[in-house]
């Protein structure tokens, strides 16, 4: 059912990710030109993520017909039905023909409509190009909420070149039901696949509290970005007027793609190249909040892996923090646990 008007006009708002979920949605990795070893390594870690989330809430995995048997053998998630509404944003493969991750995204354009049809949920269509990882909200309702995003992504000329910053902000307010948008200039260093998605850089832990990707190494190119964001957040207030508490979450590494990892990808020219020596956009901010659980990546950097679990445990004292070993396999294909999941909120 296609809806008329904007979500905020009809009393909708986007809930925070820590609010109760009816289920989690995931997509199954398959493309050999993006995932090394015909995606076998990535599929193994995706299955670990789905299994971890399923301890807290149901998981529904979207896969092609060809992969159905493979995924069925590795997952046992079910999904209940709840009544909410969904926004069907536009999509152009994270940057279009010239800068996107792959050349043909025609089937991707049907995913949101398909899911909403399966769930029998109302659909709000929108022509603006926007990916879920480019926004993060604090969930405050009745037009008192706050949204985080980056100029590097939403103002990139490869997304919505005919829209001004003010126009984009107005659309975010109208469709997410928020009152205020806080813009960080840039996302995580090296996050070229998404042009600086906010979910690799900064997120809300609760209203008035944010987690920020951080490094103490002044020689790391990430340092300038973290300091820049810290300065903006330190001087910002949320929609209710309160100052933000900033929790620093140190990045791992730095980590780089190896020759072996790059050689495992079918570099056929139809997808963005995966080149050896490329710095991986690895961040512990890219975690998933489940019902009572925090599913966080572990990159094999023990110092910062352990530190991330400790920081997240303190930030979410009522949640069980579950670390996913081998999450490097996900970041090799772009993004991480937050990028490959999508919560479906309970009414």
UniProtKB/TrEMBL annotation:
Pfam (any one): PAD_porph
GO biological process, any: putrescine biosynthetic process
Keyword Phosphoprotein carried by entry: no
UniProt keyword list: Hydrolase
Taxonomy, superkingdom: Eukaryota
Gene3D superfamilies listed in its UniProt record: L-arginine/glycine Amidinotransferase, Chain A (3.75.10.10)
A GO MF label: protein-arginine deiminase activity
HAMAP family: Agmatine_deimin
Name of the molecule in the record: Agmatine deiminase-like isoform X3
Organism: Durio zibethinus (Durian)
Lineage: Eukaryota, Viridiplantae, Streptophyta, Embryophyta, Tracheophyta
């Amino acid at each position: 059912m296609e809806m008329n008007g904007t979500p905020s006009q009809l009393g909708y708002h986007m809930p925070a990710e820590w609010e109760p979920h009816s289920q989690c949605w995931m997509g199954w990795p398959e493309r050999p030109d993006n995932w090394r070893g015909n995606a076998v390594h990535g599929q193994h870690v995706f299955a670990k993520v789905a299994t971890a989330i399923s301890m807290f809430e149901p998981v529904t995995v979207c896969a092609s017909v060809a992969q159905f048997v493979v995924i069925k053998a590795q997952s046992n998630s079910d999904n209940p039905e709840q009544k909410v509404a969904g926004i069907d944003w536009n999509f152009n493969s994270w940057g279009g023909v010239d800068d996107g991750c792959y050349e043909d995204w025609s089937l991707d354009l049907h995913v949101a409509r398909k899911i909403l049809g399966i769930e029998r949920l109302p659909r709000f269509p929108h022509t603006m190009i926007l990916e879920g990882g480019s926004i993060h909200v604090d969930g405050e309702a009745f037009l008192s909420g706050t949204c985080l995003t980056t100029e590097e992504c939403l103002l990139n000329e490869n997304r919505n070149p005919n829209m001004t910053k003010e126009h984009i902000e107005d659309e975010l307010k109208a469709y997410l039901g928020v009152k205020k948008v806080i813009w960080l200039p840039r996302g995580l260093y090296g996050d070229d696949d998404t042009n600086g998605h906010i979910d690799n850089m900064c997120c809300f832990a609760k209203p008035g509290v944010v987690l920020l990707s951080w490094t103490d190494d002044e020689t790391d190119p990430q340092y300038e970005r973290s300091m820049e964001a810290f300065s903006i957040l330190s001087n910002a207030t949320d929609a209710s007027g309160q100052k933000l508490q900033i929790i620093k979450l140190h990045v791992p590494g730095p980590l780089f793609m190896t020759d072996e990892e790059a050689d495992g990808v079918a570099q056929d020219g139809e997808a963005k190249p995966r080149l050896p020596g490329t710095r991986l956009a690895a961040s512990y901010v890219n975690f998933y909040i489940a019902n009572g659980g925090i599913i966080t990546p572990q990159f094999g950097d023990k110092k910062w892996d352990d530190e991330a679990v400790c920081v997240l445990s303190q930030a979410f004292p009522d949640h069980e923090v579950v670390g996913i070993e081998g999450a490097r396999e996900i970041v090799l294909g772009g993004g991480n646990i937050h990028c490959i999941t999508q919560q479906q909120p309970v009414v």
